[in-house]
Each structure stands twice: as structure tokens, then as C-alpha cells.
Write a structure and sequence with these properties.
Layout: H1 2-13, E1 25-29, E2 42-46, H2 52-59, E3 64-74, E4 82-96, E5 101-108, E6 111-118, H3 121-128, E7 145-156, H4 159-170, H5 174-177, H6 194-198, E8 204-209, E9 213-214
Length: 216
Amino acid sequence: MRLATVVAITSTLVTAPLAGQRDAHVDITLPPAAQRVSEAPYVRGTQLLASGRLRELLLNGFPARMHYRLELWSAEGWLFNTLKSRTEWDVLVSYSALERRYTVARIAGDRAMLLGSFDDLRSVDEVIEQPFQPALRPPGRRGERYYYNATLDVELLSVNDLDELQRWLSGELQPAVQGRKSPGTAIGRGVGTLFTRLLGGERRHYEARSSKFRTE
């Protein structure tokens, strides 16, 4: 029954472009020059759920996953830049038709944080568009040039992930939420989603690069 709903909804997706997708983007805000050795930048995604179809799919019980990746690159090379470090995190949005509420959570490393439960998407948008400062910063060497590169992939979790995600959000996997257990298996990291396959491999992908800076 659920699979039939998925196919019916997705068949409408392939016939028209994703409304609002052109407005979505990710950006990077560098800390003040004097703090760039000791502080990471802020990363922010905006208009990520602007598409009416994405919102419809959320209402039909299919969680959205926003996967961020931030890389620190050295710009000291003559011909090639060097990747120095990177970090990744996820933001998950799900909707409970029974409670008529949205739940937002962030997974960073081996820790999970519940960002809140809301009864409208406007509140969800406000939360997921808040800048996030990950644990990534340049080495303690001053006078070197660097830049950050951020990527963001927005997808919908597959049918096989729905039950695991619901158990995790409802507290069955509470040790993961409290940081005592990695939540990675609970959200199906790296999953190739059913929607991505039905859309012919299409993926909502966004990228941003900071300006080059020299540590002081």
C-alpha cells in the first residue's frame, strides 16, 4: 500500500521541474579574521523545503534528509590545492500524520540532537535555516592560505528506512540521542533512496565555496 502511494506521488514528480528548487542554496560565513585559526565557519542552507512536491511527500510520511559536507582546503600549492580535513552531518525532517507534527533532528558525528517538534512548516524552515558551526577549523599554523567548500544533498528516505527512523525518533534508540550509541545505522547513512532511483538518478545538490583567507 505504501509502495503504491510512493509510485503514484513520484510519477507526478517526473513530469515537471521542481518548483522552488532554483531558490535553494547553501552558503558559508567565515568567522572574523582574528578568529579563523580557532573557530570554524558557519554553514547555512536556505529554501530547502520550498518545493511544493517535497512538502507533499513529507505530509505523506516520507522524511527528508539534508546531508552536509564541509571541507577545508589548503591554497598553498602552486598547481594543486590540498584537502586538509572534512566533516559531515545530517538534518532530518519527518512528519507524523497521527500527531500532525513535524520533527527535526541533527546528526553530527556520533551524536544526535533533537531540534524540536512543530505543527507547521514555517517553524521547520526557521529551524533548518539556522547557521550551524561544525567542529572543523584550520591547523594552528598562522600565515597559511585556506578556503572552505560545502556541499549539500537533499533527498527523501526510502521506504525501508521509515520504520527505523520512526523508532529512533520515538525513543526506542534513545542511547543514540544521548550520544551513548552511534545513530548511523538508525537513519540508513549513504542510502540510495527509492525516489532518487525513480527520478532517474536526479539529486538535489548544492555547493558553495568560501573566499580564500590567510590565518593570522
